[in-house]
Structures are given as structure tokens and as C-alpha cells.
Design brief:
heterodimer; A: mainly beta; 6-stranded mixed sheet; 5-stranded antiparallel sheet; 11 strands; 56% strand; B: 116 residues; mainly beta; 7-stranded mixed sheet
């Protein structure tokens, strides 16, 4: 099956930038996504990138995609305490029902 | 934007009873809905994929007779946990995908099931 890996934990100070990394194994992915999950809640789509793009910026969020290395990153500028959550990367591949394959999740803790 | 409503958000039931969880797409038609289970501090595990009007496709290791999925319309899918046991206690999340693939997948807010 598809493997999507993330580091489990990240701590940053309020106001600093956070960079969450993700690696995947299937090069046929069409879209890659970043989701945010707060405690006891569902997943909130933060942003997505099409596989033929290298970079996408949306306000404080910057997504970088290195397709050659199968590496995806999410940079959060000026990290706030409200950004503390678990962040999942996910990819969709064009087979079957186009299900999403999720990473293991990175727990981001923002220190005031 | 696309909204998926999932109910209930929290349910406590006795062992041996059945619990139904609903997932509705509010402003779009969902051709495909997915049901996930999430254990504490873990990622999401896909349980099954349901397409409107057809039988659900279950992932390996998921008992289809225990986790009944019905996707009777383009806006509603239900997951029924039958004869629930304490080991079924978990966080269940649904996701819906519209005709337009670029919209991605919209998730419900999840249901915390506790079986006592």
C-alpha cells in the first residue's frame, strides 16, 4: 500500500515559522492535501496542491512540493497558539475510488 | 464552501446495542463517501468507501456485517455499528467527495462513540 510519512511532533515559539514535512511513495498522486485536526474535531482542509505545481501560497500558508523527491512541506508563517493542532498530509492517487492516503499526523505545539 | 454534517457528535451506548451515525453533504452532491476510524493519537484508518446506490467497499479486516453502510442518496450516508462492544469505542469520521475532483474531500466533524 501507499506510505505517507510525517514526523510525529513539532514545537515552535509563537511568532516563529513552522515547517511540517511529509514524504510519500506513490509518484502517480494527483493532488496533495494538508488537513488540520483540533482535539475532538474532524479534519479541516487547509490547502491543497496539484501534483504539477511546485509551490502554492495562501496567506500564512506555503506549500512546497518536490515531486522528484516525493516530499511535501507546509510552512506556517507567524505561528499562533491557535495553530496548535495535528496536521495531516494526504495524497489522492487516480486508482479505484480515488481514496485519500493519510500521513501519520504531526502534532504541532505552539509555545507562548 | 462544501460542508459535511455528521451526527451525532458524541454517543454513549450499552454493549450489544446498535448505533447509527449520519453523514450529510449540505451544499453539494457526494458521489462517494468514505468512513474512517481514528484511534487515540493515531492517523485515520479507512474502513469503507460507499458510492450512492451501490454496496460499500470494505477495507481488509473491517467486518461488513458489523459496520453497515448505506448510501441511499447523493447527500446521505449512514454507518451503523451493530451489536457494539467496548472495543468498538473510537472516533469515527466521514468524508464526502463531490463530482468535481478539485474540490477535494470534505470531512465531517466526527463522532465519538463510547460503548459501556
Amino acid at each position: 500500500g501507499e506510505d505517507v510519512e510525517q514526523s510525529l511532533f513539532l514545537s515552535v515559539r509563537e511568532g516563529d515559522s513552522s515547517v511540517i514535512n511529509c514524504t510519500y511513495t506513490d509518484s502517480s498522486s494527483t493532488y496533495l492535501y494538508w488537513y488540520k485536526q483540533e482535539p475532538g474535531a474532524g479534519l479541516q482542509l487547509l490547502t491543497y496542491i496539484f501534483s504539477n505545481m511546485d509551490m502554492k501560497q495562501d496567506q500564512r500558508l506555503t506549500v512546497l512540493l518536490n515531486k522528484k523527491d516525493k516530499h511535501l512541506s507546509l510552512r506556517i508563517a507567524d505561528t499562533q497558539t491557535g495553530d496548535s493542532a495535528i496536521y495531516f498530509c494526504a495524497e489522492s492517487i487516480p486508482t479505484g475510488a480515488n481514496n485519500l492516503f493519510f500521513g501519520t499526523g504531526t502534532r504541532l505545539t505552539v509555545i507562548p | 464552501g462544501a460542508v459535511v454534517s455528521q451526527h451525532p457528535s458524541r454517543v454513549i451506548c450499552k454493549s450489544g446495542t446498535s448505533v447509527k451515525i449520519e453523514c450529510r453533504s449540505l451544499d453539494f452532491q457526494a458521489t462517494t463517501m468514505f468512513w474512517y476510524r481514528q484511534f487515540p493519537k493515531q492517523s485515520l484508518m479507512l474502513m469503507a468507501t460507499s458510492n450512492e446506490g451501490s454496496k460499500a467497499t470494505y477495507e481488509q479486516g473491517v467486518e461488513k456485517d458489523k459496520f453497515l453502510i448505506n448510501h441511499a442518496s447523493l447527500t446521505l450516508s449512514t454507518l451503523t455499528v451493530t451489536s457494539a462492544h467496548p472495543e468498538d469505542s473510537s472516533f469515527y469520521i466521514c468524508s464526502a467527495r463531490s463530482y468535481s475532483g478539485w474540490r477535494g474531500y470534505t470531512f465531517g466533524s466526527g463522532t465519538r462513540l463510547t460503548v459501556v
